[in-house]
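Reviewers asked in the last cycle whether our approach scales beyond single polypeptides. To address this, we selected a multi-component target totalling 773 residues and predicted its structure end to end. The input consisted of the following lines:
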Amino acid sequence: MSEHIEKRERREQRAPVVIVVEDEKLIRRFVRTSLEEEGCRVFEAGTLAEGLIEAGLQKPNLVVLDLGLPDGNGIDFIRDLRGWSDAPILVLSARTNEKDKIQALDVGADDYLTKPFGVGELRARARALLRRQSRGGEGASPVVVFGEVQVDLARRVVTRSGEPVHLTPIEYRLLCVLIANTGKVITQRHLLRDVWGPASVESNHYLRVYVGHLRQKLEKDPTQPEYILTETGVGYRFQT
Amino acid sequence: MSSGFAGGIIMKLLSRQGNHWLSSLPDWQRFALALLACAGTTLIATPLLAYLDLANIVMLFLLTVLLVAVSLGLAPALLAAFASVAMFDFFFVPPRFSFEVHNAQYLVTFVVMLAVAIITGQLTAGLRRQADDSDTEAQRSRALYEMARELSGVLMVEQVAEITRNFLRRVLNADAIILLPDSNGRLLPCSGQDVARLQIEPRLAIMAFDGGAPVECPQLANSGYAVLYLPMRSPMRVRGVIAVAPIDALAEPLLDERERLETMASLAAIAVERIHYVDVAQHTQVQVVSERLRSSILSAISHDLRTPLTALVGLADSLTLSKPALSEIAQETAGAIRDQAERLAGLVGNLLDMARLHAGDINLQKEWQPIEEVIGASIKLLGRGLAEHPVKVTLASDLPLVEFDAVLIERVFCNLLENSAKYSPPNTSIGIDVQARDGRLEVAVTDSGQGFASQGGKDKALFEMFVRGEAESARPGVGLGLAICSAIIEAHAGTIAASNRPQGGACVSFTLPLGEPPLIEEEVLPLADERVP
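The resulting structure, written as structure tokens, was:
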């Protein structure tokens, strides 16, 4: 029994710290329990001001943030936090307006969940973001594998079921940007800027066509992609 | 020069009110006055005969004739001339008290006096006519100015029509009807006018409206038709047509006043245009206010409804996953609560969507994109809801990019897929077929259920709100899904229709117009070192 407790304590010390900024107590409660089951230490904040204080005290590994809080705009919170912290931010949004999501992502949020959401989804997103964070420091492996596809970033070689896949330079650059942002939502603007350069941020149709090419070459069923996912109206998400 | 000067003096004399009543007397009184004037001169001159030469006496008579001509007109002046000659001859020229004339040179006196009478009389008459004309002119200009002033305050087109009619009736003894184009461009009399008053020849009105120039047709005057069709030209465009008809069936005086009438028409046009822009501004303002109100109400409702639903879904979901695991029954219950709450959330979403779509102007965020992307996203979004219904997507090769609002079209696919899953037995597949034909993208979503009950799906009512394929059903839903699809597709200028497939199952198909997609520049050939071996 004591062994058990010891084990748990050891785990808690290394456990990632999560701050949940949300004004609705019941939502906070289930977010807390589900993240605790993921092995996180969770701190709660009911307002943006509390959230900022907690973030300063706890040095979180992840911030879960509701955009519509009574004491201010979540966008300002993200800007504030980004001034001194790289902790990934998962936005909870009750709004269906895509502009709010894009804005949150553009000022530094990493992912979003639209209310209502299931526990499974929440945990998957949180896991992905925490994994990104923990991996960030060490030199990431130069070989990325998803499904039957293997991408050797060092040698610039892409294979599918062992067969080489030919990518054009733009397709390859796009794939690299997607891989570099695994588990995050990347806005169209962001992708266009990184792949085509800052002059092309309005040419959304290029992005869509090239994402289509990549899916053709890498996905099993390009019409129902498993790895290069569309976040309609917002951007794309690459997940392995 | 001197005649101009004399004319000026005479004009001044004429313009006095006093002279007006003299010249407006009945004829016989004017002639009597002329004779009286001559008699008076004779009376005055008789005692002076002792002191004055005959030549100067004649001057007195000449003055009389001049004054009569100026004040009473040409005919009394002629009478005065004859009377003066007669009286001068009779009372003053020796032998006195007889009409005999010994000295032939008095004939010259007579002729001069007659000539003075005629010339002065005619000159006066002409000047009087001119004075009268300029009087009318001034009066009409004043009326036009008054009309402009009245028009500057009006707020309704009916008032413009009324003021225009009053002006015409008062100043030109004419009647008019204002014709304004309706939303289809047809010229119709503006409301509040008694249309039966005068007949209108529509073709002439259309000619005036399209040509932007007045059209006249004096031949119509006797038949009660409008003879003059004036385009109402405003700075922006022709706003309508004023059809003018003389009340006394005389077209000429009207047509002589064409310039003034054109001025009148443009005054009316400017008033109509001003009213139009006032309306537009008001409308826009009201729209902006109601738009803001609507979206703030909707987002408040959306927030207030979704927050408890989020808690409900999350809490129930965390119960099913809690450790140690609940008993099987409790797990099932928690799962059911979660599913119902999710469905409720979906319903709320649909209701809010419908409220947004139905509120009128949908703000489409159109972008050029491949349709398959949004299909994939919808299938992914439905996730667990499609677990028992594999979706088979069939795309024609080389589909062009289509311009649409991805978020809204995603809603269409989600609703259609959800419907298909709901109304078809488990473990049957759903099909999505896409092809481009006749300038349109055609998308069909098919399932293997029992199809639509009413009229084989041809029933247009299916796409109305709160209408369901089967009236009383154990299947949940309120009949908003297809109504939302239809509103979205219509906003994209597409069409949507439902039918039953011959081999069984329902088919909902919609089209989106294909345009000219932007060019995608071909990428330069990959460099050797970037090409993957």
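Residues 187 and 501 of chain B are 49 Å apart (CA to CA). We regard this as preliminary and will revisit it once experimental data from Aim 1 are available.
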